[in-house]
Amino acid sequence: MLVKARALSSALIFKFNGNGFLFQYSTTAPTNHFMVKYLINSLGFSKEEAISSSAKVSYHINTDKNPDLFINFLKQTGFSNTQIKILVSKSPDLLFYDVERILKPKLHCLTELGLSGSDIVKILLRDWTFFSRGLDTHIRPVIKCLRILLGSDENVVKVIKKTSWLISYNGGITIQDCLNLLQSVGCSNDKIKNFVLTRPGILKLGAKKLEETLHRVEKEFGVSPDSAMFLHIVSVLASHSRSNLDKKVEIFKSFGWSDSDVLTMLQKLPYCVGLSDAKVRTALTFLMNELGHESVYIASRPSLLMCSLEKRVRPRYEIWKLVNEKKLTKCKWGFYTVVSCPESRFLEKYVLPLKAELPDLYDLYIKNIGK
Fold this sequence. Notes:
globular, 21 helices, single chain, mainly alpha, 3-stranded antiparallel beta sheet
């Protein structure tokens, strides 16, 4: 049976072979009733969703494929119907990919590494561009490069699960360029490896931006590649534009911070610049305006800014202040120690021993921290 459909500037031909409709597009893909019907009946799309998705199909895609093959392949991989719908809505071209020749070899690379079916589902839902990446131009070179850097498939799996886009990034050449730059300034392979295991995003910077950032960290911030914080500062600066960084610095300066204070904070804990403007202002208002701490004190102890004000800093401060005023403990911890110590230690030193004299203290504290 041959059915023809026309829509505005382009035409489509649909063939029925007994197993379902096979779609062939002559030019750009228009909205068509057959594909809309397929998405509604097979994947549970609403009419509006189906129309929108069908219009996304690229004109160059070879649509002489049965989309049921792709759907069945995803189900066998571990995708639920809902997850398949999400994936197809993001990239309906996938319905017409060659399962045997293109898709299975690519997923085989992931299973070879040790990724489970559920891992693969999560990765592909976050980065569906994986399907369109070349097996030999992108996927295999990236895996090879990561294997050499990280030393084992287990570590490669850890990184890919943490940063799914990496597997379909611009290829092993781009990643190798980044590694070469880091090595050229004196970062050891072990240092790079350990950093990438926790923060693989540094590999996405691109050689030009990475080179500029490496120069800034050394020259403008005076941090040597030998420093334990060097790569952390590189990662943070590269992820923020100069204008955004300047805006953040101005917030600190509005509270009386000097350039030296800001530099000290960045050298000790650069991730502070990633905090929201509101969190920075609220924390500084409490620490400086209410408690009276100087900028030098906070800059040298920047983890105070990273802690939750409502669930950690303020509740512990109130307990610490009360206990000290009433002289209920011989413990002489300072404010920073009280805030930064593990929860179990704080309870042990300041809360649990006081139940006899202040029976409601423990319940009040637990309520304040939201446990």
